Amino acid sequence: MGFLAVGIVLVMQLFFYRRWTHEVADLSQPPSSAYSKELRALMLLMAPNVLFQCVQGQIPIFLLTMMGHTNSVAEFGAISRLAMLFSVFGALNMNIMHPAFARLQGRASMFRGFWAILSFNLLVGGGFVALSSIFPKPLLWILGSKYGNLEHELILAVVGAGLSLLSGCIWGMAAVRGWVQQSWLYIPATIGGQVVSVFIFDLSTVKGVLLLNIVAQLCAIGVFLFIIFKGFQKLKRQADQQG
């Protein structure tokens, strides 16, 4: 049923996107070969990351399944559902923030836009972490009475979800500008962080797996910030050449 619901949503999105596209573009015209070539190159650069993300998201639950107990898997699944609190803001980034950043012209305006979007996501993530720290019981009550003892795990789960929101925010801004040449660094950086985590944390516990996820998200944020830095450096070089 879940796959069916997602499929219906995707079909509806396709319908509306095609409808909106007809209002701003003449689809009967042949596509530009230069743009098509550039888009294919960008897609090939981003494809490994997309495939890796599909697998990487399942690694924590796989490790907990192999090393932990049935109760730990159930607790991890329950507390991970609180990450849905961030889904609204992830959609806001994707549909409003990132397109707005893509439309910005000039290095100075892009720099201000980057920090404005980043600050908003930091505020959202920090707000949820503060909320879960101050009022953990009401949030755990939503999951059910048998999960009432997961206060520390709740905070870690919210921190991980907030970092995921932040990494998605930064990566989205890099992607809409076409700054994806170094995106492959995300894969070895994330794997390296997880390998180190295996030797540091007890992955038979929910806490250990949540900490592993936090390390992976921090590695991703580091790589994506580096990509943004390289992108702004490229803009500076272009401005210097034109000047």
Low-confidence stretches: none
CA-based gyration radius: 20 Å
How far the N terminus sits from the C terminus, by CA atoms, comes to 58 Å
Beta-strand share of residues:
under 5%
| Tally of individual domains | 1
- Find the structural class using helix and strand composition: mainly alpha
Any overview of this molecule?
The structure is a single chain. The protein has one domain. The protein has ten helices and no strands. The protein is globular. The N and C termini lie far apart (58 Å). With 243 residues, it is mainly α.
What are the defining features of this structure?
mainly alpha
Describe the secondary structure blueprint for this structure.
Blueprint: H1 2-24, H2 33-56, H3 59-67, H4 70-80, H5 87-103, H6 107-134, H7 136-143, H8 151-176, H9 186-200, H10 206-242
Please outline what is shown here.
With 243 residues, the chain is mainly α.
